Amino acid sequence: MKYDKNFFEIKENNYMLKFNIQRIPEGFILRGKIKGNPKRVELFRDDVDKVMFINNWQSWGVSKSIDIEDYTLKISEDKKSRLKYSIHIMPELFEKNIISDYFIGKKDKIYGFLTSKIAHPFFEIKDNELIAYLDFFDRKFEDYVDIEPFIYLEGKNIESLLEIYADYVKFENKPKFSKWNPIGWSSWYQYYEKLTWEEILKNLELSKGYNYEVFQIDDSWQKDIGDWVPKDGYPSLKEIANKIREYNYIPGIWLAPFSVSETSDVYKNHKDWLVKDDAGNLKVAYINWKKKIYALDTTHPEVQNYLRKIFLYMRKNGIHYFKIDFLFAGAIPGNRYEKITPIEAYNLGMQIIRKATKGDFLLGCGAPLLPSIGYVDGMRISEDTAPYYNADDINIPYQNAYYALRNVITRYFMNGKWWWNDPDCLSLRIEDTKPNEKIIEMYAYVSGILNNIIFQSDDLSKSIRKDVFFNTLELRGGNSHVKGLMNFNNFFEIEALNTKIGNIKMKVDLEKVEYSIEKDIEYPQINKRTIVREDDKRLFHYYEESDLNA
Q1: Any idea what the Cα angle at residue 326 is, between residues 323 and 327, rounded to 5°?
Q2: Active site residue ranges
Q3: Listed residue (288, 204, 286, 287) closest to 247, CA to CA
Q4: pLDDT digits (tens, 9 = 90+) for 220-268
């Protein structure tokens, strides 16, 4: 290693790395440049604590505290094919060791990365050491490119440090997302793939009085995955949108833009559009709908034009709210038309979609988190919810409201900084569902207090806790903080200042399914000032109690 012109230089057999370290009030930021064929680069090591806070790379993965001595991830055989690629971008590594993507925490320290534009940043826990990596896959660089900045924060509790980390990420990426935090109805958690046009018309008529802003049709309207036109039994997309607008709602639609099923017309006619493996065979991205699903190669010029046309067509026909799902497919490793990393390919696809939608609301789902910042207005930050709640289910948390709600809490610090958090839909009916009314209330009120997107998914002809829906809306609008992220008993305290009904404190026990809400709690008013130093662009945070009598 040598030092030259403000940079340390490291020369390895296959790459050259230049980096420097910037001091910040809470720790330091490591920045640098790299060239060559770096593959997987180690940037940092530290000891681990017995209890660590980990995060998965995309929407459906867990974010929670673990005991590293006891932690195991059990993947049942029937779910392995469904989740193999969605659980981790590097499944072979994930099944061997403890992996945390983008950031990892101790009770008083946070280690993280600020961007994911080229490389995939992650942490591995191995032999009681914490190792920070950047994975460049097989990308070669003739000239120097910026690495993803690494940040180390210390000196406060983990919740405060995660909020500070979110600020640094926000400053680094400068995301521009909608100021609108939407409320609406979605079809999925009542109808799944059995939704009919008749049921849509019925619920539109029954929706009067709910004051929705969006009416969103989920999976089941389309001809096939990849063929984004209405199937038999549905009118044209323009007629669908016009009917929804008659009720003064913004028409919303679901699609999985990077996914192509083996039965679709796109698959039959354009196999050259799909990501391939090293042998040149089409690479299966995941299994769903009882089909093999392949991934579009977003670097292919014809694919780029295809993606652009899809969203322009939908906008032209009146759709202005898009739930874009299974986005991880755009980032699977594989061979593409251009030799770039999966992360670059994902970012390229998202750039096309964002530009084509021209400011309409984009809700990401099943999405890589850090690479999506700046492209989406809202983000699902949990596994699928369900009419099912079981805190004892140790298998992969697929469609379990317990695991979904835990992620709603543990990823709270992203909300309003990177995007609006989507806690997944509220199911407020008290028939054909397993969760009792206490669970219904707890899920809804946590989502409201955390000022999340609120969508309901019920057949509105059912018996519904309509009071819970409107109570939830009254809890929004505040500035929320969470305590208890390092607890194994899943007991949390949430403080929300300046909600529509004042200051609130909520205690939540996910294991016992108990909660309490105190209103009009007196808290000191804390003013936060963030100052950017012009010479090196470092952020300085100042917190001070304001004089309420001034």
Answers
A1: 85
A2: 325, 384
A3: 204
A4: 999 999 999 999 999 999 999 999 999 999 999 999 999 999 999 999 9
Is this model's pTM higher than 0.90 or not? yes
Residue 86: pLDDT band with limits 50, 70, 90: low
Q: Cα separation of 461 and 457, whole Å?
A: 12
For residues 400 and 432, the answer to whether their CB atoms sit within 8 Å is no
Residues facing 154 on adjacent strands: 109
Task: Write the burial class of residue 537 (CB in 10 Å: 0-12 exposed, 13-18 middle, 19+ buried).
Answer: exposed
Residue 196 pLDDT greater than 90, yes or no: yes
Least confident span in 344-358, 393-407, 491-505: 393-407
CA atoms of 362 and 359, how far apart (whole Å): 8
Cβ(268)–Cβ(62) below 8 Å: no
Taking CA atoms, 278 is separated from 40, 243, 282, 413, 426, in Å, by: 18, 48, 9, 39, 43
- The tokens 């998202």 sit on which residue? 350
* CA–CA distances in Å: residue 75 to residues 17, 79, 94, 286: 38, 7, 11, 15
Query: Per residue in 132-176, pLDDT tens?
Result: 999 999 999 999 999 999 999 999 999 999 999 999 999 999 999
Q: How long, in residues, is the chain?
A: 550
Report d(CA 49, CA 54) in Å as an integer: 12
| Residue that the structure tokens 């991830």 belong to | 73
Is-contact 76 396, C-beta < 8 A? yes
CB 139 within 8 A of CB 341: yes
Bridge partner residues of 416 (DSSP): none
Query: Rounded to whole angstroms, how far apart are CA atoms 356 and 309?
Result: 8
Category of 361 on φ-ψ map: left (φ > 0), alpha (ψ -120 to 50) or beta:
beta
Contact assessment for residue 273 and residue 263, using Cβ atoms and an 8 Å cutoff: no
**Dihedral over Cα of 160, 166, 172, 176: its sign:** negative
Residue 517 CB contacts under 8 Å (≥ 6 apart), including other chains: 445, 449, 504, 505, 506
Contacts of 252 (CB under 8 A, 6+ apart): 184, 186, 214, 215, 216, 217, 319, 320, 321, 322, 323
CB 380 within 8 A of CB 422: yes
Q: What secondary structure letter does DSSP report for 434?
A: S
β partners of residue 124: 99, 131
